[in-house]
Write a structure and sequence with these properties.
This protein is of the alpha/beta class. It folds into 2 domains: 238 residues, Aldolase class I (TIM Barrel, Alpha-Beta Barrel); 70 residues. It has 14 helices and 11 strands. The strands form 2 sheets. Strands 3, 4, 5, 6, 7, 8, 9, 10 and 11 form a 9-stranded parallel beta sheet that branches. A two-stranded antiparallel sheet has the order 1-2. Helix 6 packs parallel to helix 7, helix 9 packs across helix 10 and helix 11 runs antiparallel to helix 14.
């Protein structure tokens, strides 16, 4: 598979862009375990053109990220064009347009998956962005706005006609948010559409290697994108690759190994933020996710989530390692919620 002239190999694995998740330290962990393509957290076009420093920081890419995309969202075509040009100056390998985020604060302005209510505007915006930048442009979207408007086959054709070189599809409507099950049959319909020439990237409910293989077989997509399934489990990329290549399930890491990964990610978060407390706060979304299904874990979880000092976090991790060190997490029944 290729994005523009970027060769990605057969069935590459993408780390989905996620707000407050896909920052430097987490991207590093996922890359360490085999993720092929990185995305920044999605960035607001309006914030970019206003030169908001916090938003511009999200676009910082590192050598380990490559190949990597900056993902932008917005509802105004002129602002999105300007934002794409600003993002291009930050040096990504490609620009990605967010037509899939279901968050109310974004959708109510017509951005993200709100664009699915106006496919004509979506096509015009995409064409304008493609013409405005010199690097490849891709997009990520959903099946449609709701159960009665699953327009993804038409949308995919429109986005291809507008010039995107690859399309990622999350197998839910905006109305579903993250409830119910992802519908990969419609992703398959897009992939099998004889009009489609660009690579299709499938996304939704990949929570392990067997599910990844089943979705791949069902849809025939060119690549897989993993989002929530990677939070607290960055080695899922390694597990999926190994299974696709060998048909074998890798053993889950021990809690002692997981603790070391948490320490590594925490230290990188602190270094990147140049502030201990900020680095710890960044990790709170990840702490409990790293230790699912452990028996009698409630007190440990509370201790981790309430710790403000690095010493307290390290003590909490020491306790977890001493109590559960050789234990292997059972991911079979871990929810993505």
């Amino acid at each position: 598979m290729k994005i523009g002239h970027i060769e990605l190999g057969e069935i590459p694995l993408f780390l989905a862009p996620m707000e407050d998740v896909t920052y430097k330290s987490f991207r590093y962990m996922c890359k360490k375990y085999g993720a092929d393509v990185m995305y920044t957290e999605f960035v607001s076009s309006e914030a970019l053109i206003r030169d908001v420093q916090k938003t511009k920081q999200k676009m910082t890419l590192f050598d380990f990220d490559r190949p990597a995309a900056i993902q932008i969202y917005g509802h105004d075509i002129d602002s999105m064009v300007e934002a794409a040009q600003i993002a291009e100056e930050a040096g990504p390998d490609f620009i990605d347009i967010n037509y899939g985020c279901p968050m109310k604060k974004i959708v109510r302005k017509g951005a993200g998956s709100g664009m699915l209510q106006d496919p004509d505007k979506m096509q015009r915006m995409t064409e304008a962005i493609v013409k405005a930048v010199k690097i490849p442009v891709t997009a990520k979207t959903r099946l449609g706005w709701d159960e009665n408007s699953k327009i993804i086959v038409d949308v995919a054709e429109r986005l291809q006609d507008a010039g995107v070189v690859a399309l990622a599809i999350h197998g839910r409507t905006r109305a579903q948010l993250y409830t119910g099950e992802a519908d990969w049959s419609l992703i398959a319909e897009v992939k099998k559409n004889p009009r489609m020439r660009i690579p299709i990237i499938g996304n939704g409910d990949i929570n392990g290697p067997e599910k990844a293989k089943a979705f791949l077989d069902q849809s025939g997509v060119d690549a897989l994108m993993i989002g929530r399934g990677s939070i607290g489990r960055p080695w899922i990329f390694q597990e999926v690759k190994h299974y696709l290549q060998t048909g074998e399930i890798l053993p889950a890491p021990t809690v002692a190994e997981i603790v070391q990964n948490v320490r590594d990610q925490l230290n990188m978060s602190i270094e990147w933020k140049d502030n201990v407390r900020s680095g710890i706060l960044m990790m709170r979304r990840h702490f409990a996710k790293y230790f699912p299904s452990l028996p009698n874990f409630r007190e440990h979880r509370i201790r981790l989530l309430q710790a403000d000092a690095l010493e307290d976090v390290q003590k909490a991790l020491d306790l977890i390692e001493s109590q559960y060190g050789d234990y292997r997490v059972d991911y079979a029944n871990v929810s993505l919620k």
